[in-house]
């Protein structure tokens, strides 16, 4: 029995282990099939090696093109423009190559991961525990064979893809290294050019040529590099371009609405003096937005700047037609023409003798034309006197350019040449942009009846039509930035400031930079200004022309608080995301704020929550006629903490939202703005009451300010000592016309009763005054 029990136990244990092995083997086989299927799907999503190689080859070809004139075909001098263009192209290529390298790294990791998982599953010990039973063994071997057939091609494909990916990855790593090395080399060249700005870099213009390259090749190289630089930059800044287009559309709509208001009120001047911004609203919008928004594009290629400036010049030229004198129109067009010629020359990246002669001619023309304008120009016809200063400065720069060109300072000569003409064009564009902005704000101040002075931060009652000094300061700052970009030393002056702002700092465990903080505040400021602008233009009564527009405006105004909350909420989210503020830090701040609320900010929170209740529940809307504790007026605005009520006396009452909800609020607008009026009078006891009723009701029904439904009502109340008391009830269409309508009706009732010989008895009182033994009788009439 002991031997039998021992054998039975061993048999049971063997069967148990065999069952466990079967279960484990089933799980392993399913896991292997799952990984094989995932591997197949992953392999199907691959771009083939031909496509990947083509991408790397395209980067390589662009790299060779970018290096033309810098690493190959160097010529006799390294030019600053060529180095800058090459650096921008290499930056774009490095970004593409780095992204490509990261994608290949990720692919290689996933390939290795699939191979490792499949190999580990295939080498699991449980997979090699074969059943003792021959039937089960045969079945298991068949499963193994099926799995082997499925795994083998996938494993081979994974191995082959891993080898191909590794080869591509090696090429990408080498390409990234070459790009980074080339950028470092270009940085050294740029430092040398900046250091040797005033040194002789090339032979004097009358001396023999040191090296020669056909001018057609130089032009073709400049064209290819310029197009490539512009393409890379636009691909990386497409979002900014879309934002700029949206701003142009918004500015255009605003100027069109402003022009329609002036045209409707017959306020447009025939010569558009002081109203040039309204002459062509689309051109004004394009000019203003481009000249301001171009500073959002950081380190743009020169070709993009030329496109922006050319568009602005075309817009301003059309606006100038028959607005400025012919003399100054010719001056402006000549400056634009010379600038465009210089810009075309500045696009050429490599030095050549033909270009140097062209540069010298352009410089001499600038000196001659500028001198004639400065000394013989019709200054009395000039609208912006500062333009003369920029033209005089152009003469100095162009003279310096010609001198530097003759004596072999090529980079300095080219920088001075483009800076001279650019200085004049930018000065004129910026001065007129500021003037147009000032005109737009001033014109809005004159016609928008509810302008919030906090919105534009300008008091036009004090400033008048003069451009504020702050605007001129911004013009000078923008001019300095655009002017300085043409010189090689600009980056070395601005570089330390840029590094200071971008340097990572730590405060405890939190890391931040001044750039991120500035970005946070800028985004919040923009969101705040946008919310104010939406509130301002959506609630202005001047935009109403009829009742339907009033109702639409009233509907929009009631949602203004929610719209402002949404705008500020989106702005806060974008600001936090852009600044990289961790969410856990925000949670700590909210916790501290909750403690502060619990201790001392209950009243403030009460008003804020009441504002939200008003926004959602809408017991009162912007534009409603209300009566709060005897204070009657119109709701001007509903804010976060408080609301503003404009009384009928003209005063603005600021009422906290909590007090507004807790008061006995009468909202006349909720009932359609109607109000019932009653007038009491008395008629003679001998009067014909039916005729009196007919006369008075006919008069009320004929008044257009009185509603027909509900119809006017006349009631005879009671007999008095000398008359019958009458009450008239009627509804007026607008609460604000109630007092005037009542006055008109009293006048009309008196006239109608007199006309029909219906008397209104006057109450008489007799008073006896006893003075000793003399009794006097005094008769008094109360009117």
UniProtKB/TrEMBL annotation:
The chain crosses the membrane at residues 238-256, 277-296, 302-320, 332-351, 357-375, 387-408, 420-449, 470-494, 514-538, 559-581, 587-609. GO terms for cellular component: plasma membrane. GO terms for molecular function: mechanosensitive monoatomic ion channel activity. The keyword Transmembrane applies. It is a multi-pass membrane protein. Residues 604-669 form the Mechanosensitive ion channel MscS domain. InterPro entries: LSM_dom_sf (IPR010920), MS_channel_C (IPR049278), MscS-like_channel (IPR052702), MscS_beta-dom_sf (IPR023408), MscS_channel_2nd (IPR006685), MscS_channel_C_sf (IPR011066), MscS_channel_TM-2 (IPR011014). It holds the Pfam family MS_channel_2nd. It is found in: Cell membrane. Residues 679-760 form the Mechanosensitive ion channel MscS C-terminal domain. Belongs to the MscS (TC 1.A.23) family. PANTHER family: MECHANOSENSITIVE CHANNEL MSCK, POTASSIUM CHANNEL RELATED. This is Mechanosensitive ion channel. It comes from Pedobacter endophyticus.
